[in-house]
UniProtKB/TrEMBL annotation:
Record-annotated V(D)J recombination-activating protein 1 RNase H domain positions: 180-294
Pfam family, one: RAG1_RNase_H
Region named Disordered: 1-39
Organism: Loxostege sticticalis (Beet webworm moth)
Low complexity bias (residue ranges): 1-16
Protein's UniProt name: V(D)J recombination-activating protein 1 RNase H domain-containing protein
Length: 460
């Protein structure tokens, strides 16, 4: 049987070129040759085919020294790498930020990578320059020993300018867009104190008060078309600081700073890029209850800042429904994360106080509490959560509040059967609250039944 006659694809009259054949076909076609000659003979013929003396030398060398093949291969592969290839400065910065690298880490990775490809990663100074492009102009940032304040207009415009470099859109059409952002502030105490003196003795770096904003989405005005959306709205990744100050959070400071920034918001000019006009819409929702209380003039942390109900009123449902909620204060929104944690903590406290069935231990209840009933109840519940579900519930962490976080709360509610057993609370109550929390967190528009709506506005 001749080697070509067996190939079905090509007719015997026009045999394919050897190079075009598949590995299997090549094997078949050379079968007769391999049978009739020894490998040495074949290699000899092959080496004779090299016109170039160097190539012939390398070929023969490899046949004599197959143990060096790996080194030669590595050398060949290195030749194939494009040594002039490099990451762009902005790609490098993006990696630097997203991987949360330190300067030292970046330089270490760079020195390793650049051994193979010397120009692949740009130097650290290039990253610094690229970073500077993300900042507002320096004269728009006021810095003193005790605080830093960024001009809001310029911060927003810089953010927009950076975004416009990312997105693609129709440049010819005149369009009106809206940039939707959330902002807010909070204080944090117990920061590390550093060995540095301040010329003003009143400044103390153990407490810090901070105001920041997060861009959420950019959409076309009067439509649902979204141009850009923050992929991680709850992460600090896109968070932009507006103001920070070394000072303990207090009512006056909160009010003054919020008023100042709200004044700036009132006078914001739209951002114009070609034919596109972008209006800013900032909502003050990054706030905790303490800030809400300060801003609404609610004097007690136990009081509801929407309807003014005190703990005393809260067990009397008819009194609660008679209250008129201040709908202005709806603007602070509901943090779905904190709704989980607070509802969870509320249920825990009810469970601790089950022995005397009252919210705060006063009068004779105080005596029961002093008899350490509550402590026993508390420890028993915490212990059981730990052994049955592995959850650390309501345990005070050193300098950082309690171990109760969103995950603990979510587990508490989703395993409502176990939670009810441990706490002694009604299973149905926990389950129903679980449903409500899931509805709040779903992000969907919810049709509230009419009978609840009337309760809501206090008209019943
Ligand atoms: Zn209320």
């Amino acid at each position: 049987m001749s080697p070509t006659s067996s190939t079905k694809e090509s007719s015997p009259s026009t045999p394919k070129l050897f190079a075009q054949l598949s590995e299997r076909q090549k094997r078949r076609r050379t079968e007769a040759l391999r049978q009739s000659s020894s490998p040495e003979e074949i290699n000899y013929v092959a080496s004779k085919n090299f016109k170039d003396a160097d190539a012939k030398y390398v070929f023969n060398y490899l046949i004599d020294h197959p143990e060096h093949a790996k080194k030669v291969r590595q050398f060949c592969e290195d030749l194939l790498i494009d040594k002039d290839k490099s990451l762009t400065d902005s790609d490098s910065l993006s990696m630097y930020v997203n991987a949360d690298l330190t300067k030292r880490q970046y330089l270490l990775i760079r020195s390793m990578i650049n051994k193979i490809s010397p120009k692949l990663m740009p130097g650290y100074t290039k990253i610094q320059h690229e970073k500077e492009k993300c900042y507002p102009q320096t004269d728009m940032i006021s810095v003193t020993e005790g605080f830093v304040k960024v001009n809001l207009q310029s911060l927003l415009d810089t953010t927009m300018y950076r975004l416009f470099n990312l997105i693609t859109f129709n440049h010819d059409e005149i369009q009106e867009w809206v940039m939707f952002l959330k902002w807010g502030c909070d204080g944090a105490s117990g920061q590390s104190m550093y060995k540095q003196t301040f010329s003003d003795d009143n400044i103390n770096d153990s407490s810090i008060f901070m105001c920041s904003m997060v861009p959420l989405k950019l959409y076309i005005s009067n439509s649902t078309d979204i141009v850009w959306q923050n992929p991680t709205p709850s992460s600090s990744r896109y968070c932009r600081p507006i103001y920070f100050k070394y000072e303990k959070e207090n009512k006056e400071l909160t009010k003054r700073i919020i008023d100042e920034i709200e004044e700036e918001i009132k006078h914001l000019r739209p951002f114009v890029y070609g034919n596109v006009i972008v209006n800013y819409n900032l909502v003050l929702t990054m706030v905790d209850t303490k800030i809400c209380n300060d801003l609404t003039g609610t004097d007690s942390a136990m009081k509801c800042f929407i309807c003014g109900a005190t703990p005393r009123n809260m067990n009397k449902l008819d009194q609660i429904f008679d209250k008129t909620p201040n709908s202005d204060n709806y603007r602070f929104g509901i943090s779905s994360l904190h709704a989980w944690i607070r509802t969870f903590e509320c249920l825990l406290h009810i469970a601790y106080n089950l022995p005397f069935k009252s919210w705060s231990a006063r009068g004779e209840n105080k005596k029961i509490k002093e008899d350490s009933q509550i402590c026993r109840e508390m420890l028993k519940i915490q212990e059981e959560f730990r052994s049955k579900t592995g959850l650390l519930v309501d345990i005070v962490k050193q300098g950082a509040g309690k171990t109760n976080d969103g995950n603990t709360a979510r587990r508490f509610f989703s395993e409502y059967k176990t939670s009810a057993q441990i706490t002694g609370l009604n299973e149905d109550l926990i389950k129903r609250l679980f449903v409500i929390l899931q509805v709040i967190a779903s992000g969907l528009h919810i049709n509230v039944p009419r009978r609840f709506q009337t309760v809501h506005t206090g008209n019943s």
